[in-house]
Amino acid sequence: MTQTELNGAKALWAALSAHGISTVFGYPGGAIMPVYDALTFYPEVRHVLARHEQGAIHAAEGWAKATGEIGVCIATSGPGATNLVTGLADAMLDSVPILAITGNVARHLMGTDAFQEADITGITLPVTKHNYVVRDVEELPRVIAEAIRIARSGRPGPVLVDIPKDIQLAPYHGEIAVPHARPEIPAPKPEAIEKARELLQSAKKPVIMVGGGSLDAAAEITALARAWDIPVITTLMGLGSFPSSDPLWLGMPGMHGSVAANRAISEADVLLGIGLRFDDRVTGRVNGFAPNASIIHVDLDAAEIGKIVRTHVPVRGDARVAAGLLAEGAQKLDLPEWRERVAEWKTRTQDPDHWGAGYAVKAVVDRLRPDDILSSDVGQHQMLAAQLARFEKPRRWINSGGLGTMGFGFPAAIGAGMAEPGVRSIVVAGDGGFQMTAQELATLKKYDVRNVKICIINNSFLGMVRQWQELFHERRYSEVYLGDSNPDFLKLADAYGVPAYRADCAEELPEAIDAWLNDPKSSLLEIVVPNEHGVFPMVPAGASLSEMIETEPPRPTPGIEKNEAAEEAKNA
Amino acid sequence: MTAPFDPGQKDHLVSALVRDEPRVLTRITSLFGRRGYNIRSLSVGSTEHPGLSRMTFVVTGDRGVVEQAMRQLEKLHDVVKIIDHSLEKFVDRELVLVKVAITPESRVEVRQIAEDFRARIVDVGRHALTFEVTGDEGKITAFIEQMRPFGIIETMRTGRVALTRGSNADIPSHVYHEGETETLRPVVEAAEARETQAGGVPNLF
């Protein structure tokens, strides 16, 4: 084959290139080798070699969440493909546009239990928006075009394209398909908008709640809330859809939501939800959620409307369009009593004043600049960051909301940092989650990524599990102690050539943060904190939002039992 | 755990026009399985449009469950259109094979009942007759009940199939041209049409 002749593998890169894909994250292997061979002819596409396929797909997710554009990852067949499954499920639940390309064994071997064969389209059926096996090379660029369209359109999501090895090698004669236009989203029905407007006008205790589906409608939602003068709650996924500095902002709802947000939901008479799916971590016990409210639900996914909560005014359509229409002709509601009540709740914040995980997270997030991207892993530090960080614009907060994937944060921060090399990509992780994808330190080193700042909040425990064991399992700390076997994180970073800093107490923290953030390279900061620290407020699982525990309950014998528990864990 | 008796639970007859591609059946049934919707019967066949298959299924649940199931189905890329037959007049049929035990004494009576139901004998054995019956659910149930006292050895039902009554097709021919797969997404209009026909159900979109 000459350089100019196309085969399936080259047609794939030509198609990706034609769609403006500039970076892909992946890991080679036997059944995807023709694609990696063809890559050498397409220098315009940058391939980022991760150290695990899960790292590759989380990086692609970080890229997609930061930019709103599609993230692309590549893996070989069998184990390579199955290593993508967690990332696909994560992208599915958080509606992230992802194109995953997997190699497979040659068609004549498919179904024979061949070496490194897995039925990946079968395996990923429930965790992808759609998936394909390419069985005819002439179909390949068309399938890629369609897959990208499906991933990006409507409610975004992951799409997997599985390409057998013989298809990658087969000569290709066709054109390279041009990108499909995104199909237009139907406009919300005027009657629905009218009904919603009437309900808002009649409201005495209104509240707006926005989720991850409203990130690209932040401007319209801000205008809407200010025009009506209605307080706004942003869910974990919606943080940044409304500026935190605005006095109307009430914080995050749900299990670790703010007092103001949860009390406002529990008392509201009208709740306008935009681009959210009423996750159980948001609603608590569903029949106790917003018990007095008429609910207006704006979503472009019809299946989300009425799925969890009863909906009085369903508005199907794009969040941006709907919010724009709802802002039209708005008159400021004059509700001084509601304002006062909300303002009183807003003062009940949990600003950490003594040394612990919350104190450490606050010290880090207080240093955020408006453009900085903050990623988090999953656990206590995630909830603390979500409670304490302030976001003025969307797509600056990246975390695994729906699936709660430990190991997500660090590779996602690499992906986001590569998408926006001009801004700092800060990740807050725990000592547990960081170790699930710590090998991606190699990716940082290999590509000389300079803007990724890793912060490990080290409490020597799987903190969130420990908190639940403390509250609901009579402090039986079963298999959550990590302190006896954690690596020396500074040495670990050093082994990968990543500069690292440590703070062991409040006094050391400011200097360590300065050194860490001012390091011209990507760098790591380990903050060693006392291990028993809970995240509050907290709504226990299965309780309603009004049953929120506002502050950390007093411990029976503070400071002593923790060591006993650790000893017990060690000896167990 | 058995669910408490819910008077709202009833059967809903739903058709889906789907792309005739590998794994479509798995995709649809796995969606039902994952979300816990019970399919009472399912039948699949090709249509007059190359590349399009038609599935008819009976879902048990209250109105909300069925609505949610249909909306989840409509999101699938392979699903072109969903038709809820309870919202319009329709014809439905099911084919069943019933093997009935006979004795020299009962033979004539069994044959007579079968004739009344216009059931055809498709197999004759020394101690059994196998009948083919087509009809709506009521007729088939009635036939089986009539035969039960003689001893039913086994039955096999195809599951219900249904079409909307009248001259209009559920999917107009011009919507689908082979190869132009991008035109294959009239589900939004379908959903709207369904809502406006729904009567008592709130006009959602």
Walkthrough of the structure:
The complex is a heterodimer of chains A (572) and B (205). Chain A has 572 residues and is of the alpha/beta class. Helices cover 35% and strands 15% of the residues of chain A. Chain A contains 23 helices and 18 strands. Chain A has a six-stranded parallel β-sheet with strand order 2-1-3-4-6-5, sandwiched between helices. In chain A, strands 9-8-7-10-11-12 form a six-stranded parallel β-sheet, sandwiched between helices. In chain A, strand 5, helix 7 (140-152) and strand 6 form a beta-alpha-beta unit. The termini of chain A are far apart. Chain B has 205 residues and is α+β, with helices and mostly antiparallel strands. Chain B has helices at residues 24-35, 63-75, 107-116, 137-147, 187-197; strands spanning 10-19, 38-46, 52-61, 79-84, 90-101, 120-124, 128-135, 152-157, 161-164. In chain B, the strands form two sheets. In chain B, strands 5, 6, 7, 8 and 9 form a five-stranded antiparallel β-sheet that branches. Chain B has a four-stranded antiparallel β-sheet with strand order 2-3-1-4. In chain B, a hairpin with a 5-residue loop joins strand 2 (38-46) and strand 3. Chain B is elongated and about 55 Å long. Mean pLDDT of chain B is 81; it is low at 1-5 and 173-205. The A-B interface holds A 121-122, 125-126, 129-130, 133, 146, 150, 155, 180, 183, 186, 189, 191-192, 301-303, 305-307, 314, 316 and B 22-23, 26-27, 30-31, 34, 64, 67-68, 71-72, 74-78, 181-182, 185, 188, 191, 202-205.
